[in-house]
Specification:
alpha+beta, Arc Repressor Mutant, subunit A, three-stranded antiparallel sheet, 3 strands, about 15% strand, DNA-binding transcription factor activity
Protein backbone atom coordinates (compact mmCIF):
# COMPACT_ATOMS: atom_id res chain seq x y z
CA UNK A 1 0.00 0.00 0.00
CA UNK A 2 1.51 3.35 -1.07
CA UNK A 3 1.87 6.20 1.40
CA UNK A 4 -0.34 9.24 0.90
CA UNK A 5 1.75 12.29 -0.08
CA UNK A 6 1.97 14.92 2.66
CA UNK A 7 0.13 17.50 0.54
CA UNK A 8 -2.75 15.11 -0.11
CA UNK A 9 -2.99 14.29 3.60
CA UNK A 10 -3.23 18.02 4.36
CA UNK A 11 -5.97 18.46 1.77
CA UNK A 12 -7.92 15.52 3.17
CA UNK A 13 -7.56 16.88 6.70
CA UNK A 14 -8.73 20.32 5.53
CA UNK A 15 -11.76 18.81 3.77
CA UNK A 16 -12.61 16.85 6.91
CA UNK A 17 -12.53 20.07 8.95
CA UNK A 18 -14.75 21.83 6.41
CA UNK A 19 -17.23 18.94 6.48
CA UNK A 20 -17.33 18.96 10.29
CA UNK A 21 -17.85 22.73 10.35
CA UNK A 22 -20.67 22.51 7.81
CA UNK A 23 -22.37 19.69 9.73
CA UNK A 24 -22.15 21.59 13.04
CA UNK A 25 -23.43 24.82 11.45
CA UNK A 26 -26.43 22.97 10.02
CA UNK A 27 -27.18 21.30 13.35
CA UNK A 28 -26.82 24.59 15.22
CA UNK A 29 -29.10 26.40 12.78
CA UNK A 30 -31.70 23.64 13.05
CA UNK A 31 -31.61 23.56 16.88
CA UNK A 32 -31.57 27.34 17.31
CA UNK A 33 -34.28 27.98 14.71
CA UNK A 34 -36.92 26.87 17.22
CA UNK A 35 -35.85 29.88 19.32
CA UNK A 36 -35.93 32.33 16.42
CA UNK A 37 -32.17 32.65 15.90
CA UNK A 38 -29.51 31.13 13.68
CA UNK A 39 -25.93 30.17 14.52
CA UNK A 40 -24.53 33.55 13.43
CA UNK A 41 -27.08 35.40 15.57
CA UNK A 42 -26.12 33.27 18.54
CA UNK A 43 -22.40 33.90 18.02
CA UNK A 44 -22.94 37.67 18.20
CA UNK A 45 -25.15 37.33 21.28
CA UNK A 46 -22.57 35.03 22.88
CA UNK A 47 -19.71 37.47 22.28
CA UNK A 48 -21.75 40.31 23.77
CA UNK A 49 -22.79 38.21 26.77
CA UNK A 50 -19.28 36.95 27.52
CA UNK A 51 -18.22 39.94 29.60
CA UNK A 52 -21.55 41.77 29.76
CA UNK A 53 -20.21 44.93 28.19
CA UNK A 54 -20.45 46.77 24.91
CA UNK A 55 -18.10 45.96 22.05
CA UNK A 56 -16.99 47.87 19.01
CA UNK A 57 -18.27 46.33 15.78
CA UNK A 58 -14.67 45.62 14.74
CA UNK A 59 -14.11 43.62 17.96
CA UNK A 60 -17.18 41.51 17.25
CA UNK A 61 -16.16 41.01 13.63
CA UNK A 62 -12.81 39.58 14.67
CA UNK A 63 -14.55 37.00 16.88
CA UNK A 64 -17.47 35.84 14.70
CA UNK A 65 -15.71 35.57 11.34
CA UNK A 66 -18.26 37.51 9.30
CA UNK A 67 -17.47 40.24 6.83
CA UNK A 68 -18.00 43.79 8.06
CA UNK A 69 -21.04 44.25 5.82
CA UNK A 70 -22.63 40.91 6.82
CA UNK A 71 -22.07 41.71 10.49
CA UNK A 72 -23.57 45.19 10.07
CA UNK A 73 -26.72 43.70 8.53
CA UNK A 74 -26.95 41.08 11.27
CA UNK A 75 -26.55 43.70 14.02
CA UNK A 76 -29.19 45.90 12.37
CA UNK A 77 -31.63 42.97 12.35
CA UNK A 78 -30.86 42.07 15.97
CA UNK A 79 -31.41 45.72 16.88
CA UNK A 80 -34.81 45.76 15.09
CA UNK A 81 -35.73 42.65 17.10
CA UNK A 82 -34.80 44.45 20.32
CA UNK A 83 -31.93 42.07 21.17
CA UNK A 84 -29.05 44.54 20.91
CA UNK A 85 -28.61 48.28 20.94
CA UNK A 86 -26.07 50.43 19.20
CA UNK A 87 -24.49 53.52 20.67
CA UNK A 88 -21.73 55.95 19.94
CA UNK A 89 -18.17 55.08 20.83
CA UNK A 90 -16.66 57.58 23.28
CA UNK A 91 -13.11 56.71 22.15
CA UNK A 92 -13.89 57.32 18.47
CA UNK A 93 -16.91 59.38 17.43
CA UNK A 94 -17.02 57.51 14.10
CA UNK A 95 -17.17 54.14 15.85
CA UNK A 96 -20.21 52.23 17.03
CA UNK A 97 -20.52 50.14 20.17
CA UNK A 98 -23.04 47.29 20.46
CA UNK A 99 -24.47 45.82 23.66
CA UNK A 100 -27.14 43.33 24.67
CA UNK A 101 -30.55 44.52 25.78
CA UNK A 102 -32.38 42.77 28.61
CA UNK A 103 -34.35 40.87 25.95
CA UNK A 104 -31.11 39.82 24.22
CA UNK A 105 -29.59 38.70 27.52
CA UNK A 106 -32.69 36.61 28.30
CA UNK A 107 -32.68 35.01 24.83
CA UNK A 108 -28.97 34.24 25.12
CA UNK A 109 -29.58 32.51 28.45
CA UNK A 110 -32.40 30.49 26.90
CA UNK A 111 -30.43 29.27 23.89
CA UNK A 112 -27.00 28.87 25.48
CA UNK A 113 -27.73 25.32 26.71
CA UNK A 114 -29.10 24.41 23.26
CA UNK A 115 -25.92 25.58 21.53
CA UNK A 116 -23.65 23.90 24.08
CA UNK A 117 -25.57 20.61 23.76
CA UNK A 118 -25.08 20.61 19.98
CA UNK A 119 -21.36 21.29 20.44
CA UNK A 120 -21.05 18.54 23.04
CA UNK A 121 -22.87 16.06 20.83
CA UNK A 122 -20.92 16.87 17.66
CA UNK A 123 -17.45 17.51 19.06
CA UNK A 124 -17.16 14.80 21.69
CA UNK A 125 -15.19 11.82 20.51
CA UNK A 126 -16.86 8.47 20.86
Amino acid sequence: MAAIPVEQALVERWRGMLALHARIQCELDRALHAHGVCASDFEVLDVLAAHDRSYRVQEISARVHLSQSALSRLIARLEREGLVERGSCPEDRRGVRVSLTAKGRALHGEVLPVQRAVLARTLTDG
